[in-house]
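Known limitations

Files may contain more than one protein. Parsers should not assume a single record per file. Below, a two-record file is shown to illustrate correct handling: read the sequence, read the token line, then continue until end of file.
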Amino acid sequence: MKRFKYIIPVLIFAALWCAQALAATGSGLNRLLAEGHRAINGWQTEDAARIAAEIEKEYSGEPLAHYYLARFEFENGNYVKALEHLEASGGEIPVEKGGAGFEPYLKAAYENTRDFRARRSQHFEIRYKPGREEIILDYAVETLERAYTELSSDFGYSPSGLIVVEIYPDLSMLARATGLSMEALKTTGTIGICKFNRLLISSPRVSLLGYTWRDTMSHELVHLFVSKVGDNKVPVWLHEGFAKFEELRWRKAPGAELKPSYESLLSRALRENKLVTLEEMHPSMALLPSQEHAALAYATVQTMVQFLFEKKGYGGLRELLAEIARDGNLDHAFKKVYGFDTHGLQEHWKRNMRSRGLREMPETWADYKLIFDQNEESYEKSEEIQLKRKRARNYMVLGKLLKDREHPAAAIMEYEKAVSIEGTGNVILQNRLAQSYLDEKQPRKALEALNQVVDLYPGYVGTHIRRAAAYMALGEANLALPSLAEAVGVNPYDPRIWQMTLEAAGALSQQEKSAEAARALKLLAEQ
């Protein structure tokens, strides 16, 4: 019996020591998990990576550790590793234990990209489906790298590691990746989103007429910068304001003016007191009731950030983001940096906008609307492109009828009658007139018609293609190439672009450009 007298205290001591050790282990892991999930939530990639390395070294067998590592690898675009860790974790983890509910997005990301290839540049990994999307890779790299350089300077910050960009050939893939419905995407014209520490971009092919996809890539990259600099505490409306204000930085100086259609929407909304409120923009622009509402919202927040920029430049904008990152108190941040809260911002901004004499355009073609569910034939018959005045509309219809029956000279007469009533600001009418001029071997008149609308509606691909055709007809291949490059930035899958590029590059003995055009035509022919 004596020997048990000593064994029992030893067992009790061992049990207490084990319990304390386990508690210490749990405490250490829980602390790291809390820090790690907080870093991921704030898009602080470097901190999340440091914590992931420590967790993997010290607690690799713990289910909660595997769950964190699954989320970390997902946020870094490593879907296979993320799925392996998720399986090892035993599945979904309750939110109070650090769960984030990312599992459906991980599975969608894996399914979306399992057949993708990757193109790497200095700061980006662009993932794409082999085929047509290969046409835009060089342009995507150029856009993103230029934007990265300018944004790093503007924000005083450069993200580390490669930024993952996924290009989806189908809009449904964007829906699966983000959890947004197809209805929401089409209703608001949402074709790109920055989420889960990467850029998710729809191919220009998802819209009948394409869209300004290079600006969209830059726009989404701005979101990534804002999320990281602002510790992911910046509200949606301000996020979008930064993104719209900075989206052209890859090709223009800061402080770019509103495009005319946005300016017109904003002017009308201010006059009629029908602005989209900041509250309506929450939790996402993609949930607004129409593409027109979304365009007006973007015009609103872009000019708000422009207003702030004019007050204190990039120094003020950087200080604002730093203050928001500290505690997330928006009104406090605005008061400290600019001397007014968010309500004061809106009042100052309204007065400023009303003093600027914003222009209103006639309601013609809404260039902010993307066409998702129509083919070319149904779009040509749609009311959206018809002229508002009945007589002008009748002349345009008759002109198209004559054009289709190969009577371009007679079509010109009818189109010119429509222009005399409607004016020169309708992009559809001007393009139809220009095409008839081209058919009649009158390229200078075609250019005159197109130059009336090219700056008003830079996102209409037909204008750029016909301008290039006019320059080619005039023997000015060197002027055709810039117009063709603009067309690539809207709808790079139109074979007319590459056929003319091949001809223009050949005329100028630009072998590299000729080879690029030949490759594009080959890819288009294979699809």
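...continuing to the second record:
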Amino acid sequence: MRRISTSLLMAILVSAGALIGGAQQTAKSANAPGDWPTYNHDLAATRFSPLAQITPDNVAQLKQAWTFSLRPPGAPAQAGGLGGSSQAVPIVINGVMYVPQGSKVVALEADTGKVIWEYQLAQGQTSRRGLAFWPGEGSDPARIMVTSGAKLIALNASTGDLSSGFGRDGIVEMTVPYNGAPTIFKNVVLIGANVNEVPQGPPGDTRAFDARTGKKLWEFHTVPRTGEFGNNTWGDGWKERSGTNIWGFSMSVDEPRGLVYMPIGGPAANYYGGDRPGNNLFGNSIVAVDAQTGKRVWHFQTVHHDIWDSDQPSAPGLVDIVQNGKTVPALAAIGKTGYLFVLDRTNGKPVFGVEERPVPKGDVPGEWYSPTQPFPVKPGPLSRVSFNKETDMVTAADTSAEHVQACQQMWDKAGGFENKGPFTPFRYHEEGTPPKSTISFPGGTGGVNWGGTATDPRTGYIFMNAHDTSLVGWVEKRKPGVEYSFDTRGSNALYDRASVDGPGPFHAFSAPFKTTDGRTVLLSCQRPPWAKLVAVNANTGEVAWQATLGLTEELPEGKQNTGNSGSAGPTATAGGLVFIGATNDRRFRAFDSKTGRQLWVTKLEGSANANPITYQGRNGKQYVAIVATDSVVVFALP
């Protein structure tokens, strides 16, 4: 159902005519300089804009230009649905911004935020993560593609009407839902899968649909079936196996080669894999496939037999680098492990080398443990990957003596936290015995999560939000009637992870801290910094710079620069800047892309747990926008 404000009818007609011309231009060149046409700006997933009006010299003058609320009408601030925790990245085509808004899709004037049109779903919610643009072909006009559960919806980009000729009245039933942003290459719409992470359930296969008709083109089996390459890495555990999916927000494409790079998450269940013995291809892998056929060209697995929830959640960024005087077409892939893999994107071979190194073995009954894991020779880990109590425990100088004592009490309650370095497996805990916990770094949220990377193709610098979270507990036999983590609920799984805090998907080594105004908050028990913005030079594999990202305002002055981060990522510009929200301190920041020096910061009304964009309005000005909790917030120079 599409609704248009009567007062904007004339504006619609003008915008529609301009948009059609813009769509034709976009069909020839997917990246008009001032547009932000895809989730990651371009199919190479660089999240790099060529705009340069905003520079290190003037960025401090940025002011809020306009905002647009994503809250449902009449709902209170930070209400449910999309408005409560939006991670959406708007797209901008020829001066028109498109963004999902709960049960709606809206088109806005990118200069002012005024509504051009809105489409109201008959039922359900749109993806809270993003949407996509198809430039049209022949008599088929430009379309906006968005998912709603298992529905793929195509809207006329000029009017907001459902696109006739696509599926049934503009809607395709995909069977398995997807809550990310579609990736569109030529006339191929690429879709991941959001499945419950129970061991047996719907497959996490990647699918492709025709952007003109909605016809399904191909499906890639992320868990290989009998006779398919990689099936022998599962034992009998491939049967009806769920998880192993692209749950993140997009994929990347090498346009000249017609290759799609799929970032695939770990198999279900997250913490026990005794029923899937082997390395479990294509879990935790980058898989390159032919965009037109879905045929595998190469793959690279970043984690063998994942039992830590170490997903590969973000699209790898494509970058051409120079090695021994020769240009190498490369990609940079990083996930929750905090290890960055720089690969030749034509064949998947590591540029700087990868070593299979021995890792600790666990003691969970029936579990299969990979004896080695792949480690990039360089760069080294960009997040904390181990823990030593003597050197890594928080001190009173970091937080307070009371907080340190609370951390020690948690340590004692858990029977100590064992860590034997990267890929330390969770120990087995038998009911009736004293607890003996494991601490794993990075934790269940990373590392680097779905925010992924931004890449400056001029310098080869790759930017990412790398945070240090922990995951603590043990693996135990599931008790009847007890709710465990979301990946085993309703299943017949024998084992799952739990801790002294009880079963659940995420429990970290953190303890209460009392603020001066009497509030109690949880703070990490490892020494800060807890989050960093990191730049890696892809030409050398070395870290170029790193800067602490975020404040902990509950701490006293002088101790607040701890890093404080969520899962979102950065955006880079030709103006020499890196913009990022991501932090839980409700700030939006700009850094010098060459040095990592923070140049601008503003406080928002909500947390900016989404990736920012930058675009040029029809008035010629450069804007920077980010979704913060339940609003689109847009900035520009005065």
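Parsers that stop after the first record will miss the second one. For reference, the second record is described as follows. The chain has a mean pLDDT of 92.
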